[in-house]
Amino acid sequence: MKRISTLLLSILLLTGILSSCSSEDPVVLFFAVDSPAVTFDPQIVSDTTASIIVRNCFEGLLRKDENGNIINGAAKSWTVSPDKLTYTFRLREDAMWHLTSNAEKQLEGKLPENFPLNVTAYDFKFALQRACDPMTGAHQSYMLYNIENAPEILSGNKNRSELGVRAVDRYTLEIKLSKPQSNFPEVLTEPLCMPCNEVFFNACSGRYGTLIAFSLSNGPFYLSRFDETSYRINKAADYVGESVAVPDYIWLYVTDDNETLREVLETDDYSGAVISEDVYADLKIKKSMTVIQTPNVTRSFIFNINDTILSNAEIRKALCAATDCTLVASNAQKNAANGIVPSSAAAENVAYHPITFNEKGAPQHLKKGLEELGILTADVVLLCESQYEDAMRRLLQEWQRILGISINFSVKTGTSEEVKKAVSSGAYQIAFYPITAQTDSSYEFFGTFLENSPYNITGYSSENTAELLSQLYSGNDSSFRSVYSSLENEISQANIILPVWEENSYFVCTKDVKDVIYFSGNDKLYFHKATNEKQ
Fold first, then answer.
1. Distance CA 201, CA 298 (A)
2. 502-513 burial by CB neighbour count: b if 16+ within 10 A, else e?
3. Helices and strands of the chain, counted as H and E runs
4. Fewer CB within 10 A of the terminal residue: the chain, N end or C end?
5. Is the dihedral of CA 393, 403, 423, 324 positive or negative?
6. Residue 162 DSSP label
7. Average pLDDT, the chain
8. Sign of the alpha-carbon dihedral angle for 397, 399, 402, 406
9. Which residues contact 31 (CB under 8 A, 6 or more apart)?
């Protein structure tokens, strides 16, 4: 704790907070994040930390206000055609890119001498073309499937120049859809759709978004410094728009130790964080703290389809049929999950995950699976966090009772970080794992089952998923329910995920911090309105 306080004091001195030369103290906030950033390239950003930085340092055509309403971003106005297929955006003519002195120095001779800093329609056109180019590898590209020619471009059958996006003039952008998509304005607020200056991008020679010198931003903040454990974004004085920043600096600290995280929140050393249910359970909550609860986690069994044993569908069916998820949740005093999609992202009035428990049928699936594999017995290890060991051992007793001795079950435990690493590397057979909805959109959640998604922890994908996703927001409510149910059923029938119980994430702010905008999803933090009364 002493080390953390000393570090924060040093940072305060560096940023000038304790300087008597300043007539007005800067507004500074400190937030915890769970992992280092990988890239600051909006089109391919995937980790939570980098996504938070991108959301605050870039501005799309549109953005959300504190109530979740869609408002103007870089666009000062926009219209939609009567058939809901053509979107026309008129951009602010005074919006500028923030070019850091670091970037200016590093790219000297590679950028034009009079490099224009205006944010234009061409920047958004280039960004959307990049996002739909299969060579970019944008993991959320499915969100743009309904733009004219996007599916053909992503499959490599058309050039990205044929995307239905046109710069009518320097400050007017037109986007044409092949079918109506009711959530398309919301899609345009995502990092995937943030602008990208083609001249600057090319000057970076493949290093765009890797360092501050290779980053260009147009939002209320800009990235000013970072290392492996900390990131600072500064207020952009040259930002023009409806979301001018109040804070002068935001510090993000990688804090992956739960005990440390609890300490810095309880002592007000940090301004806030998005924390798990486990951390929240032991946190001493003060009445003055801001706490927002979000049911965005489904604790589930996931089956590694790349494992020799679990690659067999009948073996997976046997295990699912032998699992009474309602009983497992009840024994742990948890609320049983209704489906794979956590409540925060689940749509109402649609079919939920079908019950797979079938005690009599489970041994039959096992017998068939072993025959298909050409083996008589198998060893299967269940990976879980240490706190769930007793519950999992009780479950294994049930599996052994129902399935007999043809499978030898055992439990392996670890910390949450160890389990996460094992799953991400594929070094597991079955894992009891938190499936997290990164946003409050079922559309985006189902997109994690696409092959190129970094959130696709199971490795499962199908040709049908992409087509169903393109239909999910057709504007027809009855069609939406049908497609949603089809996606849930498809994943259920593959027996790759078995939802057990639901958990919450908690956004916690200390007493002096106000007006941080938070939406469901660990990366949806916006700081431009935030204040710190402690200063």
1. 39
2. bbbbbbbbbeeb
3. 17, 20
4. N
5. negative
6. G
7. 89
8. negative
9. 250, 251, 252, 253, 270, 271, 272, 273, 525
User: Diameter of the chain by CA atoms?
Assistant: 79
Please tell me whether residue 24 adopts helix, strand or coil conformation: coil
Q: Cα–Cα distance between 221 and 74 in angstroms, integer?
A: 14
Average pLDDT value for residue range 278-297: 89
* 17 φψ region: left (φ > 0), alpha (ψ -120 to 50), beta (else): alpha
- Closest by CA to 118, choosing from 216, 245, 235, 221, is 216
Q: For residue 192, what is the DSSP state?
A: G
What is d(CA 169, CA 122) in angstroms, rounded to the nearest whole number? Answer: 8
Cα distance between residue 526 and residue 521, in whole Å: 12
Q: Is the dihedral of CA 108, 114, 116, 122 positive or negative?
A: negative
| Res 5: pLDDT | 45
pLDDT single digits (tens) 178-210: 988 888 999 999 999 999 999 999 999 999 999
Q: Which two tokens stand for residue 444?
A: 């985006």
Note the pLDDT tens digit of each residue in 61-93.
999 999 989 999 999 999 999 999 999 999 999
> pLDDT-derived band of residue 344, with 50, 70 and 90 as boundaries?
confident
pLDDT tens-digit readout, 34-69: 889 999 999 999 888 999 999 999 999 999 999 989
Of 423, 323, 316, 327, residue with least CA distance to 373: 316
State the Cα–Cα distance between residues 130 and 134, nearest whole angstrom: 8
Contact (Cβ atoms closer than 8 angstroms) between residue 70 and residue 62: yes
